[in-house]
């Protein structure tokens, strides 16, 4: 990750997207994945240096896909998903569903939000990453296999693979293929930022993940079995830890704090990389180990029934509670007032209608009580009597 030298000036990778724009690299990457991948059916995640860089990459990719694939609506096919996007939650939900667009998402900060897109096929690094922890998290977006996905491709356009070649994040059956781009015309600078045409080398990587335990690297089943045993041993601590959480992300942070005390690599990213396909959070995994089933759907229904029985609700209010359940189950997350601006709520008047509809109880009360029920791990009486019953999440794979 040495950057580039142009016209006697050295530009480090951190300058990409701010002081330097390399349109030709963006276009060549887009052309490369058109040749190698099934871009119209794959899901592709691009890591940009910053938000401005993400916007430039998205425009360059749209240009290539419009020309090469005759994509009719490239603005929907390629989208940025960043902290500044007002509708990033909706775009992310669409991206996680392979039946919808966008097929290509350009991001800066999706890693740190605990985002999981299991069917992800292609990762593209157009961002310099020196932190090994961040690098592991970014690569981890692609390593989770599904029955329909045995490998993923990693396009390294900036040298992160070489920089992290001795990283703890190990792989099995590593297969690296190098592809050289054709020569391009001489660079032509413009005003600030500098725009450079530069020859690049893209790398395509197939990986099968291995996971660290004290006895060495193990398969995903072994790793998740050990993590599940740790959850069972600490189930009361975990149940107590999630009580005050206001979101699944917060619950995951609390659970990770408990588990990482047992083994430093029992972190959210490592565990979810190894977990069965239907597990998207430590909260879900803990629910399956402790309760024996996924709690999000059951808790959402329990929340709906509890609120409906506590308050004298109208038929319309009850329908809104059903939408809360639908949103929580599909998104696997708590409900927030921000989501009232999005589907399915926006089809029924959205935020303004919710504020009019819920006066007693008000919207804040309903959302708070719904989320409290959602974020609970409640054992059935049979699990609390007659001794301890241990369940491994690998049984659900």
Descriptive notes:
It is a single chain. By secondary structure, the protein is α/β, with parallel strands linked by helices. It is built from 15 helices and 13 strands. Helix 7 (220-233) packs across helix 11 (282-290) and helix 12 packs antiparallel against helix 13 (315-331).
| Envelope shape | globular
Rounded to the nearest angstrom, the radius of gyration is 23 Å
Strand content: 5-15%
Low-confidence stretches: 168-175, 180-208, 385-397
Specify the oligomeric state. single chain
Secondary structure: number of strands? 13
CATH architecture of the largest domain: 3-Layer(aba) Sandwich
CATH class term of the largest domain: Alpha Beta
**CATH H-tier superfamily of the largest domain:** P-loop containing nucleotide triphosphate hydrolases
Taken together, the total number of domains comes to 3
CATH topology of the largest domain: Rossmann fold
How would a crystallographer describe the biggest sheet? 5 strands, parallel
| Sequence of secondary-structure elements | EEEHEHHEHEEHEHEEEEEHHHHHHHHH
How would you state the average pLDDT, rounded?
Answer: 76
Fold topology:
Blueprint: E1 4-6, E2 9-11, E3 20-21, H1 23-36, E4 44-47, H2 51-69, H3 74-77, E5 78-80, H4 88-96, E6 104-107, E7 122-125, H5 132-143, E8 153-156, H6 160-163, E9 171-180, E10 194-195, E11 201-209, E12 211-213, E13 216-218, H7 220-233, H8 235-241, H9 248-260, H10 268-274, H11 282-290, H12 295-310, H13 315-331, H14 350-357, H15 363-374
Parallel strand pairs: 3-10, 4-6, 4-7, 5-6, 7-8
Antiparallel strand pairs: 1-2, 9-11, 12-13
Helix pairs in contact: 1-2, 7-11, 12-13, 12-15
